[in-house]
Input
Amino acid sequence: MQLITGKTKLLGVIGDPVEHSLSPVMHNAAIAHLNVNYVYVPFPIKRENLEKAIAGFKAINVVGFNITIPHKQAIIPLLSEVSQTAKMVGAVNTVWRTDAGWCGTNTDVEGFLAPLKALSLDWQQITPVILGNGGAARAVVVGCSEMGCPEICVVGRDRAKLEQFKQSWANSPLKAALNVYTWNELARLVSNTKLLINTTPIGMYPKIDESPVDADVMKKLSADAIAYDLIYTPNPTQFLAQAKERGAIAIDGLEMLIGQGAAALKLWLQQEVPIDVMRRSLREYLNI
Ligand code: NAP
Output
């Protein structure tokens, strides 16, 4: 790692809690590899201190930062500019400083798409099925729409929340048609899709034997489909293990995590960043 000197510039992540964030690991690995004079630090910031903290960041010349729970929406009114992507997702995860003030975007969309873009898909022919309708599902919907999917299916357990989710895009430039379903309709949706994405936390530690999709339903997944789990540990999740048994392509959440981080670091440093180094640092740290 570069020696921290009087010239070292500050990057970081704000959240509460922030102790479990993996971002410092991958960003500082990339910074060390590039031999640039930056350091990436976690900043635990309580809800009630957000505004003061951001004013302080300006005062001490922080170059940029990531935002995690619970500040992803609350940060928006404190920014002078918000990207169209972040407006569509309804959340900001990356901020950088300009002469006009703080600007924000959402790199989760780019992160989610990164491993899919490597597969050269015919997006017009794909109707993704997204399990869950929380914050991460929003970035997935925007990503699939940006790539040209004509229709997107979202599966949730609460009809009212699903309707709200759909309504939230009513006056937005979302190009895809968004349809919402409850879990009892999953079997039909799974058999008709080439892209099945889990955005629920089902399968995370400690319930690592659980999958959001019953084994019988997973048998309906086409062998040439892609199963994408946003969870990154365990690796693979039960959901991805089932999909692999079907012969499907499995993508884990680590790729999205790396992709959103790489997109943020590129914005701050204004140069290409070593994605392999970021991936390796996380794999080593997580022991996967
Ligand atoms: P969130 O906003 O809380 O959304 C979770 C969604 O899952 C909600 O729709 C929730 O339904 C649903 N859900 C939760 N438990 C369920 C259950 N037992 N049965 C059915 N549905 C259930 O969380 P999030 O921020 O979207 O994150 C979701 C997952 O994505 C987490 O595992 C997170 O670690 C992962 N993630 C990964 C990345 C990455 O970079 N790889 C980025 C973001 C998130 P209700 O609304 O009905 O409660």
The pocket of NAP is lined by residues 108, 111, 132-137, 156-158, 161, 199-202, 204, 230-232, 253, 256-257, 260 (CB under 6 Å).
